[in-house]
Amino acid sequence: MTATMGTSASFRLATEMFPERDRVEITREVYGRTVLRVDLDPLAPAQIDMRVRALPGLGIATGSSSEFRVHRTSSLIDNDDFVLLAALDGGSVMKHRGREEAVGNGQALMMSGEEVGLNLIGAGGFRFVNLSFSRKQLSPLIGDPAAVLMRPLPTQSGAMRLLLDYISSIQEVGDELTAEACHLAAAHVFDLAALAMGATRDAAQIARGRGVSVARLRAIKADIVAHGGHVDLSAQDVAARHGLSARYVRKLFESDGTSLIDFMMTQRLARAHRMLGDPRHAGRSITAIAYEAGFNDLSYFNRAFRRRYDATPSDVRAAACKH
């Protein structure tokens, strides 16, 4: 990615947003020459839907694409970046420095921005995560950057999995990141990328205390939110799903200024609040909603709900009925 985007720009690029006759040229100009410094040639009717984001020293593009030939000519070479491509679905063939590597589902590959390269996205297109790192910022964190280039990296476990999950959470935020959050997010991404590619000892120690912890906490929170903080979800259950100890999970929440119990309680109350305000649940009793949200004691539910929302469950339901 280039500095012309600024340090916190974010936008969606989808071919459906443009007239069919202009789709290829707009994609080539916006994503290819401005964002990734490559040229694009569609090998099928152009279909792209991606979110592009620029953070300090870092460019992110995630989404899906139809079949393309992506190549970098000498005029487009940028000496200050490393480019990482992760294939989430589908595949690609990368040709770089006289080598050719296939990047299929569950793999990622790193290339240098100082070389002419070629990327053929496989028939049917694919879903991807594309990252562009400042060479100046990433190189000191990696023991031997050259050893990582054109080497397939697994994405289903370890630091690379944490990196991709963290990228997904950043993209879901949309345009709401503050300047401070942008700098913190970029630091975490560099930490995780360095661990995934072979961090130096000092960088690894910093990353494990910063990037990895943040990424793990985000993943655990997302897991709890997906389950609505259900009463049957214990610390042991959460820890086991993420391959961690329950003690470590509790420490992650403590480092965030809260506790696992409080976070799960907040999610249960939020679930009850959503249901009480949803007309589809208007015929259900408050007791039934409280039970489904994970509360077995109605009196306790009422007290906790009032402390959290400064209103009773009946107040929330009555307000929803007026709209």
From TrEMBL:
It comes from the Bacteria. InterPro entries: AraC-bd_2, AraC_XylS_family_regulators, Homeodomain-like_sf, HTH_AraC, HTH_AraC-typ_CS, Tscrpt_reg_AraC-type_HTH. Pfam families: AraC_binding_2, HTH_18. One of its GO terms (molecular function) is sequence-specific DNA binding. Residues 218-319 form the HTH araC/xylS-type domain. Keywords: DNA-binding, Transcription, Transcription regulation. This is AraC family transcriptional regulator. It comes from Mesorhizobium ciceri.
